[in-house]
Amino acid sequence: MATNRPLLAADMLRAWSPLWLAEAQTAQLQITIFLHEDGPQLSPLPRLELPVRHTCHADIATRLGEHAWIIPHGSGASRSFALLAAWDAGCDFVLTLDDDCLLGPRPEAFLRTHLEAFELDRWFRTIDGQAPRGVPYGDRGRLPVLLNHGLWTGTPDLDGATAVRHLRDPVHVVLRAAREVVPPGMFFPLCAMNVCYRREALPAAYNLLMGLDAYGLDRFDDIWSGLFLKRVADQLGRYVTSGVPFVHHARASDPFANMRKEARGVQIHEHLWRHVAQAPLDGATDVASAYLALADWVERFPAAAPQAGSPEGYFERTAQAMRTWVGCLLARAGESANGAPAATSPLEPATRRGGPGR
After folding, report:
1. What is the DSSP letter of 67?
2. 305 in Cβ contact with 272 (< 8 Å)
3. Distance between CA atoms of 256 and 57, rounded to whole angstroms?
4. End-to-end Cα spacing for the chain
5. Distance between alpha carbon 26 and the CA centroid of its chain, in Å?
6. Model confidence over 75-120: pLDDT tens digits?
7. What pTM value is reported for the model?
């Protein structure tokens, strides 16, 4: 979790921690909470029975030194530092949450439901309730899933323009109450409010540089992160799932403020996704090498799509940040690019919050 609202984060931890602790004891999971406070100092936290690793701006400088610039301040993209801390700790899976995520349906099975996404077999069921003729009785393989994208009840994750339109013309949002595999070759809008990553995915899970003052962009850090990661997954024959489990998202951010924050990113996004879809990642053998090849392609975006109106130097700087992110992960861990060796703990979630206004 990354937060600039420590009181809200503390309330969220009080609500969720007993359930996580119960699941940990039932399934023999080792769970650590990673809380990054997007501010200059640490605020008091409630006493919890689970271990907590609590960081702030000073810890970014300590961990990254001259590379600290890749973690922006005042943005939901600061969640990347919680992901980095979880990587350093050797976590097998990393769960991200917003600090305003309330308990959703079946909260007692929340972690277990996320982890079930990584146990899917390779057989599509054409009917529900029974295995139709032709499904093997024995080994059905294992689908290599990189991340499970959980959803939310309550306030939907809409862009500012859509949310403003709904103020005048309310529309009931319907969520699919089942897990689905996002087909290869298709993208999806990743909202980092409720996502579980396999360790292997983290070299491509960096949330991009954001901030209206610094870059003229905001609220696209997780969207573009998901865009990039899905392209990497498709290249490597890995998969993404979306659906359950749900959290409850009660807080509605200001849609007019969101329109201002998103304005430039919306224009860029109409062109960026097509550019990413065409990225030549041939020869990449793991997530890190594919992400590095994608960084080179992303750097070319302003020249390839001048009509997108990209901020001067932004994508060149972003490509540099992507390369630096991979280097920082692998250099510290002393690991191969696929994240090996595996950690010993089944789950250590880094819960997080979206940026201001999310």
Report:
1. G
2. yes
3. 29
4. 14
5. 26
6. 999 999 999 999 999 999 999 999 999 999 999 999 999 999 999 9
7. 0.91
